[in-house]
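User: quick one, sequence for these tokens?
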């Protein structure tokens, strides 16, 4: 007996069901956005192609099976698509969460350490946080210093001092300093603009010292008319004779960009170097420092400090009042101006080199000076004694030009 051959269409039906399931699963995994119509069209394409003159299957049962399989495949495709869409949403949410999570910033400056201590409970909220911050900043900075008081009341156009210079009691040269002019600001008066005063100084060697080395030092300084803060300074030094192996001419141009930042152009003969650095607010140069010291009216024991820039060297100047003092001998020009020993007051000071953190360098030499001044409106600078050069340097007033009238 010959076994009945199965109908080829019956064999295709189960395979079509498997193909439909596989195709639907792949379709759901490939794209979660396909709709039911597109899934049904692809599913019908996976079965047997229709006959040219009519529908493919003739059996009702076979037709029901095909319809049931198609509906089941479409439902499974929708279920897989929904699951895929839900999974994609969860993945996007996780991605957004990972992107929105807090991250440590990249630190380009020294880290800040937390200091564990009981905060002050007097203020509350932001006030408490600002009053007692929880961070200990390890970076070193200049210690807070008192900003010098304005001294422009002692700066008067036309006033000029001329000194005789002595080294170890021997004549060594001449030094002079004076306020040469007032420069108005083209922008107008304060607060639109601010004028400047020009202070000029000059020192030359003579006598025995000039036989060994000849030197001429010129300083041109401009200061603000309201605060006395230095705007610019130019120091020109010309040397000849012994000790001139390094350079014969040196020009140091200093621009005070703001009140705590400077730009220096140092030219030695034909070689030039530019550097910038941060300095304490209202740092003086040599001429403005002299004008500031002259304006001080300190009682006995009263002390004040500031900073001065000597070329490229930053120094701290400490001045203390010593009360009345006797100047012997009294300069003849002072006697002619009616000055007596009861009008003379002594100021003592120390010049110390400091590092970039404002700490005094103990490995460097400290210089001292003594200034004899008069109180009152004139504030005459009668004599200065210092050990800043070889031996004891002494300046004695030789000539005084009063301020210009008006």
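Assistant:
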């Amino acid at each position: 007996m010959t076994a009945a051959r199965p109908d080829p269409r019956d064999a295709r039906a189960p395979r079509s069901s498997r193909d439909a399931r596989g195709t639907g699963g792949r379709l759901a995994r490939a794209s979660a956005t396909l709709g039911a119509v597109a899934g049904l069209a692809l599913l019908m394409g996976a079965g047997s192609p229709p006959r040219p003159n009519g529908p493919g299957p003739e059996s009702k049962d076979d037709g029901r099976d095909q319809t049931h399989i198609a509906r089941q495949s479409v439902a499974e495709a929708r279920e897989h698509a929904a699951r895929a869409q839900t999974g994609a949403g969860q993945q996007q949410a996780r991605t957004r969460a990972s992107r929105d999570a807090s991250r440590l910033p990249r630190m380009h400056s020294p880290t800040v350490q937390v200091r564990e201590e009981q905060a002050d409970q007097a203020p509350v909220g932001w006030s408490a946080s600002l009053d007692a911050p929880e961070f200990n900043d390890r970076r070193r900075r200049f210690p807070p210093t008192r900003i010098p008081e304005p001294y422009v009341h002692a700066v008067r156009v036309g006033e000029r001092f001329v000194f005789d210079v002595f080294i170890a009691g021997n004549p060594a040269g001449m030094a002079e300093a004076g306020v040469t002019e007032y420069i108005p600001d083209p922008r107008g008066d304060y607060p639109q603009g601010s004028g400047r005063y020009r202070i000029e100084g000059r020192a030359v060697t003579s006598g025995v010292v000039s036989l060994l080395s000849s030197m001429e030092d010129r300083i041109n300084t401009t200061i603000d008319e309201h605060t006395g803060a230095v705007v610019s300074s130019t120091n020109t030094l010309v040397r000849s004779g012994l000790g001139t192996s390094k350079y014969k001419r040196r020009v140091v141009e200093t621009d005070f960009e703001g009140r705590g930042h400077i730009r220096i152009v140092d030219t030695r003969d034909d070689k030039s170097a530019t550097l910038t650095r941060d300095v304490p607010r209202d740092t003086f140069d040599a001429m403005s420092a002299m004008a500031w010291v002259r304006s001080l009216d300190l009682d006995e024991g009263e002390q004040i400090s500031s900073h001065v820039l000597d070329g490229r060297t930053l120094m701290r100047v400490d001045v203390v009042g010593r009360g009345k003092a006797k100047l012997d001998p009294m300069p003849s020009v002072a006697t002619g101006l009616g000055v007596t020993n009861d009008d003379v007051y002594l100021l003592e000071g120390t010049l110390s080199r400091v590092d970039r953190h404002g700490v005094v360098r103990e490995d460097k030499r400290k210089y001292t000076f003594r200034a004899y001044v008069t109180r009152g409106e004139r504030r005459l600078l009668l004599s200065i004694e210092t050990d800043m050069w070889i031996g004891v340097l002494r300046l004695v007033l030789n000539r005084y030009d009063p301020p210009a009238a008006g």
